[in-house]
Amino acid sequence: MKSALITGITGQDGAYLASLLLDKGYKVYGLMARRATSTTWRLEFLGIENEVELIYGDLTDLSSIIRAIKVAKPSEVYNLAAQSFVATSWQQPVLTAQTTGVGALNVLEAIRLSDPAIKFYQASTSEMFGLIQEPMQSEKTPFYPRSPYGVAKLFGHWMTVNYRESFDMFACSGILFNHESPLRGIEFVTRKVTDAVARIKLGVQSELRLGNIDAKRDWGFAGDYVRAMWLMLQQDKPDDYVVATGKTTTVRDMCKIAFEYVGLHYEDYLVIDPQFYRPAEVEVLLGNPAKAKEKLNWEPATSLEELIQMMVSADLERVKKEATSNDNLVKYAAATKQ
Ligand code: NDP
Ligand code: GDR
């Protein structure tokens, strides 16, 4: 039986990847940071919380990663853990560098010191392109990150390339464009919108406050994207791949799709709030997934409309359940006023 270790297993991608690997017959281990409150809700949502083995550890603690590798004896390690919210990376740049940047190096070092034959996947990002000059970004597009997060990820990306070239390790970097799902963190714009649409529809929220709605993103479904991660580690040779849909949409149009799905107009509820603008913005992202299609035979299976509908439906169901008691309704109404 193949064994895999996933860092960031409690995150959106970690949960979907764990589910995929379990379906493929892997024994799945997850490195999980110790927190004061439970973080396993995504694993529970997918019904796999008892199917995976969770090992406490932190990406900034090399010894804990070495220990996790000793326990899991994996043939594949997927490094998905990170401080992954771009906006927070200006407020906590050092933590972001240590977790998102040096954390990736810690995992590479842990593998090199334990068993360099272990295959490694690094969760790289389209945020590394940042202030791009090319209309479509591919593996050959130069990088120009625009946030401490993007800079930290670029360090992890080049370390992955460097360990492949220096130590002949099977190390791959997946340059993934934005991907979303009902399991997306609530602070990211798609989920913030679909959650607001559900609350507004059910009468427990009155407005939605956003920042730069002219930003354009290439959005796909997380469930499709974790398949590409796995495929990268099944190839004969390690390499880097862009994973994207090849379509870009403004935040404004994404809002329109979400509100229209429940028969509302976004213009009636949207408030532009300067607090959600970023010190430096990535205005547009549009990926070219041609290499992933050719070499991995990977293609996205979910359209943006299907994705947004899936997210709004899940949020409607959740908000309905949460708002069954009067107490909760009062709480939500108060939270909306803040
Ligand atoms: P999430 O923010 O949902 O998950 C991040 C995970 O990292 C969580 O499990 C979190 O644990 C864990 N984590 C954070 N800090 C540490 C630490 N110090 N030690 C151990 N674990 C830690 O991210 P996604 O699932 O959306 O993304 C997965 C990866 O892919 C990330 O690296 C992200 O930067 C990258 N990426 C994501 C894209 C996207 O559109 N989703 C696109 C391109 C790249 P906890 O639950 O305890 O907070
Ligand atoms: P991003 O995702 O920064 O692309 O990073 P996010 O959903 O946070 O922002 C997308 C775009 O929407 C604009 N925006 C807002 N964003 C948020 N979060 N909240 C708002 O109120 C708001 N208003 C407008 C942003 O300015 C931005 O242009 C995600 C993360 O998953 C990263 O970890 C990953 O690497 C990249 O995607 C690819």
Automatic annotation (TrEMBL):
EC numbers: 4.2.1.47
Keyword Transport: no
GO MF term (any one): GDP-mannose 4,6-dehydratase activity
Keywords: Lyase, NADP
Domain NAD(P)-binding: 5-311
InterPro entries noted in UniProt: GDP_Man_deHydtase, NAD(P)-bd_dom, NAD(P)-bd_dom_sf
Reactions catalysed, as given in the entry: GDP-alpha-D-mannose = GDP-4-dehydro-alpha-D-rhamnose + H2O
Origin superkingdom: Bacteria
Cofactors (names): NADP(+)
Reported function: Catalyzes the conversion of GDP-D-mannose to GDP-4-dehydro-6-deoxy-D-mannose.
Matching HAMAP family: GDP_Man_dehydratase
Family: Belongs to the NAD(P)-dependent epimerase/dehydratase family. GDP-mannose 4,6-dehydratase subfamily.
NCBIfam families noted in UniProt: gmd
Protein name per Swiss-Prot or TrEMBL: GDP-mannose 4,6-dehydratase
This protein's encoding gene: gmd_1
